[in-house]
Amino acid sequence: MAQLDVRQKLEILADAAKYDASCASSGTAKRNSRDGKGLGSTEGMGICHAYAPDGRCISLLKILLTNSCIFDCHYCINRKSSNVRRARFTAKEVVNLTLSFYRRNYIEGLFLSSGIIGSSNYTMEQLVEVARSLREDHHFRGYIHLKTIPDADPELIHQAGLYADRMSINVELPTVGGLKRLAPEKDNGRIEGAMGGLKSSIIDTRDAKKRYKSAPTFAPAGQSTQMIVGADAATDGDIVTKAATLYNRFELRRVYYSAFSPIPDASAVLPLQRPPLMREHRLYQSDWLMRFYGFQPKEVLAAADDATGMLPLDIDPKLAWALKFRDTFPVDVNRAPKELLLRVPGLGTKAVANILTSRRWRKLRLDDVARLTVSIAKIRPFIVAEDWRPVALTDKAELKPLVAPKKQQLELFAA
């Protein structure tokens, strides 16, 4: 086989990394090199695919160290039995690529994952070496996200956390049965054990930092994970329950959802078609309800179909919940507490904050609410204002057609 140059390796390994969705840079510490020392920054603008909490776009070089793997997970394009072109970077090549892309203002950081080569420990050593070299040899202060190998020695994982801003360990599938069936070489206990170890290290170093300024940081942007949606028979209810458990047990920053994509020469145990992308979108919306809107997991599950356990695809989970529990509404925008306002379909966190601020000075009319929100049409059946009470709307037996988004044909060449 002809020797691949770095450009060819980059083409293969950047394409192989596209299946990993868990690559956002939110929550990291701010660093820069404006004092003339070091190289890189976690701040700034660029051509990017990740977003910081304040809305800044962060560009990341997102690659695999190698797409070779000793595991044979059915759903993975890079599995051992897959007939794909293989490539492998050395640690030095990844370091040089990162620095070269940074100097050309293409990126602000690195997202590095890998197939398992040789052993879990050997692979983790290579990932750690990349991060160590960037930080210590080149004083790189940009963002680094490392995908952790769960079976690796805990000391190697700890070393990685000293250099990386964020660590992530993929749970892969929402149920233990699904993992055993589609990834028999992976073990749910080991995966969650590694996640628990990361949580402990993050908490310990956070406490040490409060007492000693010189204490090292450990994964300041926390840890995240990813679940594949639609590769097994897990329902949306199973996925939401698993996500809630992971948030509570391991203090995750994010759970990412990746719709299963059919792969060449796929195993017979996999579905022939990918799930609707809208299903992935609805799961992200349900995730937002739990993280920012005060919904309990059981309330999100109540929005799903009782028979199938699936969230509706035609309306968002918040609207589905509101239609099921219409006795909660209408909500008085001039008197209701924040927690209840956040339950109103169409009211986001910013709109609720604006309402709470504005009503301190005057009684809000329907026109006032309209100016504070994106669209009043979806909200009207669920609120009471100074000059508005939706008696006729809430008495209707079938409210859904009035509040569900209208279907429309997309235009290919629309401006």
From TrEMBL:
The UniProt GO MF terms for this protein read:
catalytic activity; iron-sulfur cluster binding; metal ion binding
The record's keywords, sorted A to Z, are: Iron, Iron-sulfur, Metal-binding, S-adenosyl-L-methionine
Signal sequence coordinates: none
Q: Which InterPro entries match?
A: Aldolase_TIM, DNA_rSAM_put, Endo/Exo/Phosphatase_dom_1, rSAM, rSAM_sf, RuvA_2-like
Q: Which cofactor does it need?
A: [4Fe-4S] cluster
What domain of life?
Answer: Bacteria
Fetch the NCBIfam families from UniProt.
Answer: rSAM_link_UDG
PANTHER family in alphabetical order = ENDONUCLEASE/EXONUCLEASE/PHOSPHATASE FAMILY DOMAIN-CONTAINING PROTEIN 1 (PTHR21180), TYPE II SECRETION SYSTEM PROTEIN K (PTHR21180:SF9)
Designated name of the protein = DNA modification/repair radical SAM protein
What is the species listed in this Swiss-Prot or TrEMBL entry?
Sphingomonas dokdonensis
